[in-house]
Amino acid sequence: MNKKVAWGVLGVANIAVKKVLPAMQRGEWCQIAAIASRDLKKAEQAAKELGIGKAFGSYEELLADPEIEAVYNPLPNHLHVPWSIKAAEAGKHVLCEKPISLTVSEATSLLQARDRTGVKIEEAFMVRTHPQWSKAIDLIQSGKIGPVRSVSGYFSYFNRDPQNIRNIREIGGGALMDIGCYLVYTSRLIFGEEPTRVVATIERDPEMGTDILTSGILHFPSGHSIFTCSTQVAAYQRVQIIGTKGRIEIEIPFNAPPDKPCRIFRDDGGDLSGRSAEILEFPVCDQYTIQGDLFSQSIREGTELAVSLEGSIQNMATIEAVFRSAESGKWEEP
């Protein structure tokens, strides 16, 4: 059997064509064998640019191809679950872009499809396997900063284009679904537990209706996480993890650059300016390459996935509670 897993791609989304697929093609375990678009010309153009062997003019044709073992689904948010279920029922393993679904009930139907078909399905939280996050979690679990009590996260960019899928409310647009999902996910990862209640405030765009400034507090058994995400302020991202004996700062936590080293800082709080912080630098790597290889390796070797579908459902439950709290003005339980 070929070590490399044969992948098919649903759609020609920018993130796929520009970032994820070139990175997967550099991996040891991935072969991008086919790409599909509802516009055959677009599929052919992407296939030509990326050196992909097959181009299909429909998603159904790609799923019917017996050579395809795994599918990458970067479609708009409202198409994540329907097409991931179709892929699973065609016997294909699925790596689906975040957010995994629009609702908990939708994500649960995906879980049922996974259990029914026996394929692997994973939400593409590529940050989970980046070395900077692996190291941060190791430092936390080894007690280097004491028990974690507080996490604060920030993730933003500016995009007011009403045609952009991130700004169309009906198909799952908005800050919380697009980037806030990372802040919720990494908060759960850092604490290693689920939030018991959440409170949030949301500001919506008057024309588009999407949430453009969303802030929340997640109450965990061990401490608190506070976060803000926005689609209409200057681009910025940072995560601070504060324990009883020190802190960890992740400089570029989510869009880790594939062309320069990443850094995290560990600080005992002895110098409030941060000058005494230990700087941990990580060699150049591409988190999309790592993600694709680990998923493919999991198929070949039968190992556990880095991000469980059950965990993704819990992430969605927290996101739903954030939306509910913003409406009710009260604490809500996921």
Q: For the largest sheet, list the strands in their spatial order.
A: 8-9-10-7-11-12-13-14
Radius of gyration: 20 Å
Q: What is the residue-averaged pLDDT?
A: 97
Tell me about the largest β-sheet.
8 strands, mixed
Helix content: 25-40%
Shape: globular
pLDDT < 50 stretches: none
Q: How much strand?
A: 25-35%
Distance between the termini: 44 Å
Description:
The structure is a single chain. The chain has nine helices and 14 strands. The chain has helices at about 15-25, 40-50, 60-65, 80-90, 105-115, 130-140, 175-190, 285-300, 310-330; strands spanning about 5-10, 30-35, 55, 70-75, 95, 120-125, 150-160, 195-205, 210-220, 225-230, 230-245, 245-250, 260-265, 280. It has an eight-stranded mixed beta sheet, covered by helices on one side. The protein has a six-stranded parallel beta sheet with strand order 3-2-1-4-5-6, sandwiched between helices. The longest helix is centred in the last third of the chain and has 20 residues, at about 310-330. It is globular and about 60 Å long. The mean pLDDT is about 95.
